[in-house]
């Protein structure tokens, strides 16, 4: 699993759930029901004072875990990746936070590793 902070484009359903993702020039579809939770952010590190009237998104990050496939890979096992995305509530922007199931850049045979 890797940690990132990279901008992604997200198309949501009418209920606000991620449905399609554009990341690094590639279009992905959300294949399973996304999971949502909130994490505390260290706002005191990022901002010395809270702007007057701010509240939503000041203390908590909205995090979504999504499983994605490219449309041409739909239905193929092993072609799914899992990402954690964070939505900045004030701006509506999305960022990639974590990549799970990331394949290594190049597979190494056990005999070659020694």
What does this structure look like?
The protein has a six-stranded antiparallel beta barrel. The model is unreliable at 104-108 (pLDDT under 50). It has a domain at 1-42 and 58-81 and 91-103. With 114 residues, the protein is mainly beta. It is built from two helices and seven strands.
User: Order of helices and strands, N to C?
Assistant: EEEEHEEEH
| Rounded average pLDDT | 78
Sheet with most strands: strand arrangement = 1-2-3-5-6-7
Q: Major β-sheet, in short?
A: 6 strands, antiparallel, barrel
Output the number of helix runs: 2
Shape: elongated
Structural class: mainly beta
User: Distance between termini?
Assistant: 24 Å
- Percent of sequence in beta strands: over 45%
Helix content: under 10%
Number of strands: 7
Gyration radius, to the nearest Å? 17 Å
Uncertain runs are 104-108
Write a concise keyword list for the protein shown above.
114 residues, mainly beta, 6-stranded antiparallel beta barrel, 2 helices, 7 strands, 46% strand, elongated
Précis, in short:
The chain is about 5% helix and about 45% strand. With about 110 residues, the chain is mostly beta strands.
Topology:
Layout lengths: L1 E11 L5 E6 L2 E5 L4 E6 L2 H4 L13 E10 L11 E7 L6 E7 L9 H4 L1
Antiparallel strand pairs: 1-2, 1-7, 2-3, 3-5, 4-5, 5-6, 6-7
């Amino acid at each position: 699993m890797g940690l990132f902070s990279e901008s992604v484009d997200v198309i949501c359903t009418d209920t606000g759930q991620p449905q399609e993702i554009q990341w690094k020039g590639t279009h992905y579809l959300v294949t399973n029901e996304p999971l949502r939770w909130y994490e505390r952010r260290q706002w005191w590190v990022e901002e010395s004072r809270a702007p007057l009237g701010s509240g939503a998104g000041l203390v908590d990050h909205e995090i979504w875990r999504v499983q994605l496939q490219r449309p041409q890979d739909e239905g193929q096992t092993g072609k799914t990746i899992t990402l954690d995305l964070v939505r900045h509530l004030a701006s509506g922007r999305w960022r990639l936070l974590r990549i799970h199931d990331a394949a290594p850049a190049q597979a190494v045979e056990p005999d070659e590793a020694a």
